[in-house]
Amino acid sequence: MITEGLKAHRFNAELSLAATNLGTNRYTTMESMRAKCNELYPGSFPYSFDFLYWEEVGVIDTELVRNLAICGGVILVVIFALVPAPRIAIWVVLCVALSIVDTLGFMYFWDVTISGVSTIYLLICVGLAVDYAAHIAQMFKESLGSPRERAIAAIERIGPCTFNAVTSTLLAVVVVGFSDSYVFRIFFKVLFLVVTIAGAHGLWLLPAILSVLGGSKEDRAVASYSESESLGDTGRLGTSAVQEAEIRFGSSDGSPNDRGHEASNAEDADSFISDVVSLSSREMGPGSPAAAKASS
């Protein structure tokens, strides 16, 4: 059966090295070829098996930024949920963000390009970077004292465990650093950078920030006891004055007593006021318990 017209045609072409030596050049060349072929012969398109890898170059930057933003949003929610202290949690988020930015910078100097492989490892390491800072922050939240004392207590209690986690992870990945496989070598480089940088931020930078801006925390039981003691002294002072008033003018229920009948003129009232002031001065004197607590 004979059909009319040309249904399909294929011809081969070679690209110069200048058009394919860099990743950005390859993607630009591929897009230019597609546009030109479709312009000359509508419906036609160029194809090469290498285009599967060249396509990645044009979308990997957008994919990386978008996925990092999604991971960052999830990490933000998790940190504020597990460390319910905004004054502390915000610094954990900052340490995680700085760890990822520093890792990206060192990847450039270690000849690690942004590819599908390195992007996947970098996204995995976002969660790993949270581990070191979150433990220090949680222990700082539970510690008592001034900001400096709380930071020292957090390092003393959880610092050795965090350092062991950093060391054990490095020992686990250093083996694949000698591999000839590109995937394994990139895995080693990215994980080595993240563990080292995130560990330094968690063990060094975060405690330094919290020791200045973390705020102090006192034992609520001790503070409540001190407050009750202070109120107790004031109450005893007021009770003494009321008792003296009852003695001079009668009890609070209106029943007169012997000394209450003596206050029959203004001179006795003035004398009573002077006695109350004198009584207050004696109870708040240098040797009294209330004065001792006030001075302390």
From TrEMBL:
The keyword Plastid does not apply. InterPro entries: Patched_domain-protein (IPR051697). Residues 248-271 are annotated as: Disordered. It comes from the Eukaryota. Keywords: Membrane, Transmembrane, Transmembrane helix. GO terms for cellular component: membrane. The chain crosses the membrane at residues 64-83, 90-110, 116-137, 158-178, 190-213. This is Patched domain-containing protein 3. It comes from Symbiodinium microadriaticum. The lineage of its organism: Eukaryota, Sar, Alveolata, Dinophyceae, Suessiales.
